[in-house]
Automatic annotation (TrEMBL):
Gene3D superfamilies in UniProt: 3.30.54.20, Bira Bifunctional Protein, Domain 2, Threonyl-trna Synthetase, Chain A, domain 2
Primary enzyme class: ligase
Pfam families in the record: tRNA-synt_2c, tRNA_SAD
Keyword Glycosyltransferase attached: no
Protein name, UniProt field: alanine--tRNA ligase
Record's keyword terms, sorted: Aminoacyl-tRNA synthetase, ATP-binding, Ligase, Nucleotide-binding, Protein biosynthesis, RNA-binding, tRNA-binding
Lineage: superkingdom: Bacteria
Amino acid sequence: MTINEIRTKYLAFFEKRGHTIIPSAPIVPQNDPTTLFTGSGMQPLITYLLGAPHPKGNRLVNSQKSFRAEDIEEVGDNRHTTFFEMLGNWSLGDYFKKEQLPFFFEFLTSEIGLDPKNLYVTAFIGDEKNNVPQDTESAGIWKELFGSKGIDAEIVAIGSEADGYRLGMQGGRIFYYEARKNWWSRAGVPENMPTGEPGGPDSEVFYDFGTPHNPAFGAECHPNCDCGRFLEIGNSVFMEYVKMPDKSFALLPQKNVDFGGGLERIAAAAQGNPDVFAIDVFTDIIGLLIHFSGKEYTDSRYQRSFRIVADHVRAAVFMLVDGVRPSNTERGYVLRRLLRRAAQHAQKLGVEHGEGKNSMLVKCAVNFIEKYKQAYTELGSEDVYQMISDEIWKEEKQFAHTLEAGMREFEKVAKAGHISSDDAFVLFTTYGFPFEMTLEIAHERGIDVDEDGFATAMKKHRELSRAGSEQKFKGGLADTSEKTTRLHTAHHLLLKALQMVLGPTVKQRGSNITQERLRIDFSHGAKMTKEQIAEVEKIVNEKIREELPMIRSTLPKDEAEKLGAEHEFGAKYPDMVSVYSLGPISATVDDPQFDKAFSIEFCGGPHVSNTSELQGPSTGSGQAPFKIQKEEAVAAGIRRIKAVLQ
Ligand code: SER
């Protein structure tokens, strides 16, 4: 079964069950500066999971283009890819466990034709500390579902992954695991979730390929074992909890289902081959690479490189079509890294090197475009085809120059018979020579590399460059004491409140913050009335009580401007800016339900992480901490406010 067939079947299956098919959101999040890439189908839907009504109803289904940068290093084994399609179905306060689990079971067994004997499932063991009970309901539903196929499914308790390696299968088919395995939120386990974040217990389905257990991973095999016997193919999250400011968990106003299934992995299960690179979308590309390199895919010296080229080029195609271009920052840097790693591994395979349209990477990209353009019509135009080919070739050419210069430097330093951390660091930061290549070539020649020293140098480098960029941002505070930090956040609330009360023409014209008070100068033509001042104070205090999260992100200046981020009139900003947003931002911009942050500002920080911190120790819960002390004129059309947090 091809992935196009599986995707079509999935969408049709859920459409028949009352779901509306929604398009995949772009791989570049539209209005969520908290993350560089869309990494799951639920991400663009967060406001709806929190309760906003979705214009398309409360049963949704799609296949979402997803990218997980954290998996780059993992690519090369038989299951990890950076880009993948996540099949998703959602119930926004509609159906719950007893519909969701049978839906997915029926889809896998009847539509895809998987033998239920090869399916194993997990459920949440419960968490006393957070008052979340064991998910006996899901376990019971699974027992019945397997029973309907004549399988007597035993329920066994495992706990942690380590327990799994100790206890093994125990004749079970339904397994209870702890939160690390069977709880899902964007932030992971309950303890890591920020206030206001939704999450819940989940139930995963694993496909058993029947390969022998590899004890290198642990004594006994169990569904969450990483030896390769089991592959997770789908996850039903029962998203009914939200984290409260006192760190407890409350029920959301609605019980949601957030299902995500790996399309490529389901395809691998459908053909009974645990290698996701053996599915139809990859086989032609790997065939091309075999043809042009003369190497065998099954050759263990090269298999990793085949997979890396195939994975990285596919991810690059989807990034390029959604507007990412190779650069040295943020998303552009990730794309550059993908293309350069792909080029490096194509070189390792020894593929014949063509130019322009004949470059190996461009040939692979064109093949992917052909495979995906029906499902993702944005790939279908001649312009896009041209752009993708050009961008990839441009990057390859540039990388080739970089490598030449880097190689010359490498030869120089390698004469010492040892590559010091300083040498490796200079090769990487000054010459753009990938550390991986330094390692590889050094190993081939039997030369030592100071890997730990390089890692330490890189860590220091990252910290320094972060501090450096904060200095550059206008509004960065020299004084980072707790008092000024709290006032700084109050300053953002105040600017927004002024705009709400006096109108959007209010712009910041200057500011100054000490430990005692904040001061803001802003454009406004008249003295504020007592009522206006009271109204502004009321809004700020309300927002403090609402305990809004403060989220920092770094983005290109024009993107921040598009988000409507406030900046000081006349100030100059670098190409990459730090942006602080207060309150939830999510969904897509052109969506009528778009739930904007309360305030977004270009700002170097620092800030508190939640406005609840402005309440301070001396103010009881009922008291209003924010107070305007003075409102006066400083120049024609410019007013000044001094305010404090009591
Ligand atoms: N959000 C869940 C996941 O990413 C299910 O869609 O696994």
